[in-house]
Amino acid sequence: KNLLLQPEDLQGLYGNQLITQLLGELTKNQGESNESTLHYPERGESSSLESTTHKVINPGMPKVSPDNTGPPRSWDSVRTLKERLRAPLIVQNNVKKDQMAPSEVVVHVGIPVLLHRWTNKLELRCEAVGNPEPAVSWSKNGKELVYGNRVEKLPDGSLKILAPSEADAGRYTCTARNSIGSVSLSSAVQLAAPPQAALKDADWLALLSVTERDVHTLVIRGNNTTATLKAGSALLIGCPVTGYPRPHISWFHNRQPLGNTMGISYELLAENQALKLWNVTASLTGEVSCLSVNEAGTLLQRVGIDVQGVTSPELRCLPNGLLSNQSQCMDGGANSSLTTETCTDQDCPLRWMVSPWSLCSRSCGGGQHSRRVSCHRVTAVGASDPLARDSCAGAGRKPPETQPCNTGPCVEWAASTWGQCQGQCIGPRLATQHRQVFCQNKNGTGLPHKDCSALPRPSGSRNCSSESCGVQWRVSSWTQCTATCGSHGFQSRQVVCIHQRSGKPARELHCSWSPRPANWQRCNIIPCTKTECQDTTRYCEKVKQLKLCQLVQFKVRCCDSCRDT
Fold first, then answer.
1. Is 111 exposed, middle or buried (0-12, 13-18, 19+ CB in 10 A)?
2. How confident is the model at residue 337 (pLDDT cuts 50, 70, 90)?
3. Comparing C-alpha atoms, which of 164, 192, 189 is closest to residue 294?
4. Which residue(s) pair with 377 in the sheet?
5. CA-to-CA distance for 548 and 560, rounded, in angstroms?
6. φ, ψ for residue 142 (rounded to 5)?
7. CB burial of residue 482 (10 Å; 0-12, 13-18, 19+)
8. Which of 233, 290, 393, 420 has the CA that lies 20 to 30 A from 318?
9. Angstrom distance (rounded) from CA 239 to CA 395
10. How far lies 470's CA from each of 473, 476, 502, 508, in Å?
């Protein structure tokens, strides 16, 4: 009844809030005198709650505003507030997103990223949750990331890198921060490098330094390496390569796995980069190749081996100085003098020899690779003599001299003009603008995006300069604390987003790229000392005007003001 008879000047912006505050004190126990009745989070916590006007529906039961943005009015609302306030958390997802095209990589931060030479776009997702909503920032190798036309931060906080190169490799860290705290999560980004020959590889050089002097050493260089050896010698063949990830190396003899060839005793060293043969025999004659494979590509290198060995199929045995056949050598026992006579094998059979494939004659629409195919005879001394093609009629089918390449249609990416720079603000005077990107053929006919997936895709968005994003947070001075002592005093201030030049208010969304300052905090958190008859809340004058001194709770808190009532 007393509330309904008060003048209108008590119904201002804080009038209803004040009445609700006073009514809330009715629910307190008398043993809690000398303290404000508002309850807030534990010391050190803050929030971005807004001040709102509250209506008193039931004088005996104060209500919290419908949007739950004002200060809490009861233990239940305090509990709700504590549940809502959360430090930032970055959602981790170990599953790669479905890719729009093989050339586009989209992953969540926290997962190591391996990019390939055909990758033209990388998007690192950073999904952060928290209350207040956290602001997201990026750094590379511990330093703040510099954005540009190729590296940009998207409105949802994700990081996009177009046409990634070796310069983009590093450790990228996403940091989510709000007024409660901050959290970070990183991804290591590396570019895959296909296998390449590396004559100065540390493992290979170290192996050479400890190799015996009587061991022949040979390094495979491309596909034109040849070597002539004597039977019974030891050989070390090197295939040093570099690449990322570390290439896996396999060895072959005449295009078959080396282990399938009978009569060859070998050992693999230096992570398969070296092949050691203890006793070279005629069975090694032919082509020895090493195949290096990793996620970025393959490298096949070959060496031609010609062995000058013992005469076969018989061995020459000289018991008592007379020539004999192999059976006599085997039956001669310990008294026989078994020797071998070095010799030169006969000329190799005629064979086809081919040169490497040329570059494709066309970049699209169907072209051709070409190469030279010729007939050769390798003599017993290792010389290669070219012959007329008809001479190799018995050497098997002639290898093809041409093969098709780049048979796909001639397509290209096309893009519309850039739209207006009016996207969400992602930094001071920094927004985003977009454009349409589509795939088409040379005649301008639209095609599905997958037809252009092998080509670098132009960006559909970029950062741009916008004066509408020249905004900042502005705060007012703190209000007087609601209590002089106890653990429930609080004070508030106004927090608004304004334009830096005009000082006019702007939508808070434009300032969301930076953390929003807290608009209330606890204060006067000191124990209350019991003294004789004094006011312990700044509302006592209003309590007297509202004639609430007759209530015991207010009479105790406003002892001095209610002394004469």
1. middle
2. very low
3. 192
4. 385
5. 14
6. 85, 0
7. buried
8. 233
9. 30
10. 11, 20, 10, 12
